[in-house]
Design goal:
The chain is of the alpha/beta class and 276 residues long. The chain has a single domain, classed as Metallo-beta-lactamase, Chain A (4-Layer Sandwich). Helix content is 23%, strand content 23%. It contains seven helices and 14 strands. The strands form two sheets. A seven-stranded mixed β-sheet has the order 6-5-4-3-2-1-14, with helices on one face. The protein is globular. It binds zinc ion (3 copies). One zinc ion binds at residues 16, 19, 21, 23-24, 247. The site of one zinc ion has 4 residues, from loops.
Length: 276
Amino acid sequence: MKIKFLGTAAAEGVPAIGCRCRVCKLSRALGGRNMRSRSQALIDGELLIEFNPDTLWHSHAYGFDLSEIDHCLITHSHPDHLYLDDIDNFRRDFCHGRDRAISFYAAKDGYDKIKEVSLRPWMGGAVTPHLVDAGKAFTVGGKYKVLPLPASHNGDTSPVFYSISCGGKRILYAHDTGYFPEEAWQLLEDEGHFDLVSLDCTGCLGLDGHVYVRHMNFSLCLDVIKRMESLGLVDEKTVKVVNHFSHNGGQTYDEMVAEADKHGVTVSYDGLEIEV
Ligand SMILES: [Zn+2]
Ligand SMILES: [Zn+2]
Ligand SMILES: [Zn+2]
């Protein structure tokens, strides 16, 4: 399996809209990997994770064709993960020469919102919503086994994160979530070994002392990795990635790398591609 991190920021992006904090000013000046668009990933060039306001730009920047994408997993209904106005743009009278539907998979709140768009008279069956539920595995595209796990995030957004398996390999995409709820740990134990984990690091190094509940910072990510190691879910061969950064966390890409390197953890950046 190959995962490409198309975007790696929290909702505001880095540098953030209208912000002149230290991280944003420094990131603007340094450019390169310090510049982050909103979080989104693509598996094997065909399975999209999240549909955010940077989706169109990502397809232009990385040269993948949205008319070829048939499946998209949504973690929850916050707009930096689910941008409904662009789902409406799959309408039949705007998408020429495409007669199949794109399937979106989301838990209750995201599902209800996507369904409302899909039923608009101009959509013509262009979008198919699928309701997912934490703990209930399903198959996507005849080859990906996907298990939604309950996330520790705003309940009104029906948050889940995903274990995705294919061809004997397994990836954990865990955004947005705080330290995993116990129900998630039970489900993870049944999943077995992961070849790659991508963990929520909204709070960066967490030096501000803020207590993260609905997201994580680097030290919480290390706690998750440690517990996963003790359960045999990750080992030295597992690629450990931290991802979904906020400027409010307080560190740029370069500053995150300096610390994460000491722990054998990869700091994501826009365009990072990893094959497991
Ligand atoms: Zn987010
Ligand atoms: Zn800022
Ligand atoms: Zn969120």
